[in-house]
Amino acid sequence: MRTRRFRWLIAIAWVAIAMPRASAEPGDALSQIPLAHDAPRDVAVATDDTLWIVDSGARQVVHLSADGSEILGTITTGDFGANEPTGVALAADSSLHIVDNAGLKIWHREADGTAAASVPVIDLGALGLSDPLGVDLLASGNLLVVDGFDGLMSLCEIKSDGTSLESSISTLGLGIFSPQGVAVAGDGTLWVSESDSPLLYHLSASGSLLGFVDLSGLGVVEPRGLGDCPDTTLWTIDGDSATLHHHTVAGVATGTPSEIAFCENVGLGLTGVVGVTRDPYGNAWVVDATTHRVHRLSADASASLFSFDHTPWGSDISDIDIAPSGLIYLTDSVNSTVQILAPDASSTIGSFEATDIGATQITAIALDPDSTLWAVDASSLSVRHRSLDGSVGLGSFSLNPITFTAPRDIEVSPSGTLWIANAAGAASALHQLERDGTANALVPTLPVGASLEITSPQSIAVLDDGDILVIDSTQSLMTSVEGPPPTIAQVIHVDGAMPLGVSASDELVLVFDQPVTLAGTLESDDISLSEPGDSLGAFSASSNPMNPTHITLTLGAGASLTVPGSGTGSTAVDVSATIEPGDIIDSSTGTPVSASSPRDVQFAMIPSGTVAIGPAGGTVSVVVSSDAVYIEHSLAIAPGALGSTEYFSLSVPTLSTGLVNAVELSPGNLDFLNTDSTLTLGYTVHDLHNGEGGDEMAMRIHQIEDLGGGLLQATPLPGLQIVDPVADTVTAPMPSTDPLGLDTSPSIFATLPLDTVDDRSIIIEESGGGAGGGAAARLSGEPGEAILTVGLNGLYTEHQIVFPGYVEAPEGIIVTLRESNIFERYGFPPSSGCIFTLEASTDIPTPVEITIEFLDFPGSGDIVELDGELGARSQMRLVQRLSLSEALDFHDEFPASVTANSTVITGLVTPFTNEGFAVYGLASNPNASIPVELAIFTAD
Q1: Three-class SS string for 194-205?
Q2: Separation CA 577–CA 575 (nearest Å)
Q3: Which of 6, 103, 201, 454 has a Cα at 20 to 30 A from 896?
Q4: Blockwise average pLDDT, block size 10, the chain, 940 residues
Q5: Closest residue by Cα to residue 539 from 525, 530, 106
Q6: What are all long-range contacts of 106-113, with beta carbons under 8 Å and residues at least 24 apart?
Q7: Whether the Cβ atoms of residue 212 and residue 202 lie closer than 8 Å to each other
Q8: Chain Cα centroid distance, residue 920
Q9: Are 146 and 109 in contact (CB under 8 A)?
Q10: DSSP-derived secondary structure letter, 281
Q11: Omega of the bond leading into 293 within 30 degrees of 0 (cis)
């Protein structure tokens, strides 16, 4: 069973040591995500009738099921240097021979993409070929390669070890002037296609013409790749429609299916992507200029979770950005306007033009986590810093005309620096600037043109781990480029005894701009301090299991630091340039951290002192100061909540929690007379890395309890909590912390992200002696109803299972309601979180009553159809699967109902009798009828 985050059990002394993957230098392409699978060039058919297809545009070889409905695997050819794959042949051992037209090579790869042991590369250029296209294997084991129009226009037999050109057959004398594909039939004869006519040519093994087949009746205009099937039928690729056709040797369509529309079955078919961004939930959004649509993509970019037509707001949209609040910003660079849409793109919230922000042209914008806006003006080569609505100017700077010849997009990194993409062919680069426009001293430039062949970087998006997504509009390719090495973004002094100064046992938290691993030992000379005489003393360093961006330095004897309020400013801290490369590394790449701009020490928070609050109510908060990271913490006590005056304070916890945003509230035995008081805590972008977090809208205030032995327990406060992604705060109702008044110690609170489901189990047995007896007992009014609910420590709290005819018992059937894993989620909407798995130690033959909650706050992605398209709330229906091999089953008879805080669907469903297993979720059924009253409401 997977490790649970909630309830949080925190081992204070635990240190995580992760094994890094191979080190990569900044600028290396880590992965490439094809947005347009629309250039199939060749096909090979396996003995099980599955298909291997070369997609030249996406630089991939895709393994499809026989009917084309399922992607069984992909090989990204660019990973091993094949940048223009044009042909594929399948050997008897299931290894692949892949032709690279650009590199004039044949790459021999295993089915998983790894290099084959025998003859991994054949140099076709050395054998005289200059336009290698299709390929197949002869019975001898030699390779038959088509050398096309820009080459010999021949069928070339290459020795299996690649050492010689054995023979060639010229296609000119046969009237084949643009040969494309070749397939070797089981009888040794050859089939050849050419792109200038809808004909397939049938040749003898020696190259004499035996006949031809006209495929125009199948709609084939431009035949390219060919694949011979074990049953002697053929698959032919039509390059004009990017469609595969299955037919007999007489040209008659056959098989089920007889056609596979490649770009519809593989990938997204986004051929004109010009803009990309990330939303607060980590999803990528792209603008497709060809179809004039905006798409929100799944995490692996394999599906569009939500899309809309952008033409109502302009036909020339070239850039997209998502605000922390979920608002959608669309930039029309042709008309220099920005449209601001509601999160569901249903309406316009506002707009502004270039003249409104003092610019000549708006080329692109970026939305800053600090809720401001940056705009690039390519006409005047300048950058404007504005308020989110564009109305208030916050500054500007000019771009160097030598460096920036064609600025295309701007983005803000997690550390606050600016990235601007400059499209200049082979000289294209990503430039990192400070917020005043000066070049970043550590990594001012990431070249992407000549080294990565990203010659037209149209749009970029910066990821949480510092990597950068780049859209190359000429290739319809989204490429992930490794960003700069990790650097320190903040240095936070955590002292439960403040403001009494710096002493041993105080914590100095180094916050990096991306997740890191402490893989070595830190010495005093590994950390630089700007102020003479400052020292960390005999300090110790540890990773923080609560946050992978944090390294905690516990100060030792002799520590002396210049901190805010000392009268002389603050010491600035950085890692030293001489730090051992393996001491602190990027958690995902193994890249060593780097010295950059030293960061001034800040306090975690500054207490405002003790505040007396009486029956009239009032607020206790922390000091708002640039010397503190957290300035939003506050407790608002409602009028009438107190019967007498109490003295309150908010301070840094004396207990080490590993959470720099934790706050200690005194007194700890609060029991308010009404429920209107609230606690508000702030968080930063770096706090979203807690545990498996990253979803800003899942942040919740938790109460931290000391269990002893170095273990802490974190439990979310009950009631509706409100996340404000603009202010970076979470507000929760505060009825009491210890209603019995038994604990007089201060209470500790912190913000942490929730998991989706808080797993729970119960043990049940039949009531009334058997399934039928249990049901009879229930109908007669006798007890007989066991209820399994999830815990309150997850994002979804309304999930529930009722077992008619069963009661809870000390022993019997163990039933667990838990979060679904990736395999159990398969087929459900990729973005949906309202999915859970039910497991029992044996089958349960009677129907069970299922209640499933779904959320509709921006970004949750619950209200979607099974294929990921945006759905209708009123068409949400219960979906179940009693076996991983069966299709999903809609229950249209159960409509949604609204509870106080969310929407649920309840229904009595089929028993689960497949080894005590079932998966339940919700999705919008486009075929479900919409009630009249809901239809009127929706129209309104």
Answers
A1: ECCCCEEEEECC
A2: 7
A3: 6
A4: 29 24 29 59 93 84 86 81 91 94 93 88 94 94 94 93 93 90 94 91 93 91 91 91 90 90 67 81 81 77 74 92 87 94 88 94 89 93 94 94 94 88 94 93 88 88 82 76 88 76 87 91 93 91 89 91 75 93 88 90 91 94 92 94 91 88 86 88 84 66 83 80 86 71 72 84 79 36 73 84 91 89 76 86 88 73 79 84 78 72 76 83 80 34
A5: 525
A6: 106/132, 106/135, 106/143, 106/145, 106/158, 106/162, 107/77, 107/80, 107/81, 107/82, 109/75, 109/80, 111/63, 111/73, 112/73, 112/75, 113/75, 113/76, 113/79, 113/80
A7: yes
A8: 23
A9: no
A10: T
A11: no
In terms of Cβ atoms closer than 10 Å to its own Cβ (0-12, 13-18, 19+), residue 895 is middle
Q: Which residues pair with 15 in a beta bridge?
A: none
**Per-residue tokens: 307:** 């899309």
**Complete edge-to-edge strand list for the sheet that includes strand 699-708:** 8-11, 711-716, 699-708, 747-753, 663-666, 646-651, 611-613
Cα(93)–Cα(307) distance, integer angstroms = 43
Token output for 839: 């497991």
Take residue 666 and report the two structure tokens written for it.
């005194």
Those residues with Cβ within 8 angstroms of residue 924's Cβ, 6 or more apart along the chain or in another chain: 863, 864, 865, 871, 872, 873, 875, 876, 877
Classify residue 124 as left (phi > 0), alpha (psi -120 to 50) or beta. alpha
| Structure-block tokens of residue 578 | 């001489």
Helix H or strand E encompassing 372: strand 372-377
Rounded-to-integer distance, Cα 233 and Cα 255, Å: 9
What sign does the dihedral 852-857-860-865 (CA atoms) show?
Answer: positive
Could you give the 3-state DSSP secondary structure of residue 412? Answer: strand
Residue with tokens 């790869």: 109
Cβ atoms 317, 276 nearer than 8 A:
no
Neighbours of 930 (CB within 10 A): 14
Residues 6+ apart with CB under 8 A from 118: 108
Q: Is residue 701 within 8 Å of residue 681, measured between CB atoms?
A: yes
For the four alpha carbons of 298, 300, 301 and 302, in that order, the dihedral sign comes to negative
* Contact predicate 923/887, CB 8 Å: no
Gap between the Cα atoms of 78 and 98, Å rounded: 12
Name residue 251's amino acid: G
Query: Any idea which residue has 């407790």 for tokens?
Result: 635
Output DSSP code: residue 698. G
- Locate the DSSP E strands across 413-523: 418-422, 429-433, 445-447, 457-462, 468-472, 477-481, 488-494, 507-512, 516-518
Interatomic CA distance for residues 874 and 236, integer angstroms: 44
Angle (CA) 47-50-54 rounded to 5° is: 115
Would you give the end-to-end CA distance of the chain in angstroms? 47
CB atoms within 10 A of CB 48: 9
What does the DSSP assignment read for 620-631? EEB---TTBS--
The maximal CA–CA distance of the chain, rounded, in angstroms, is 105
- What pTM value is reported for the model? 0.64
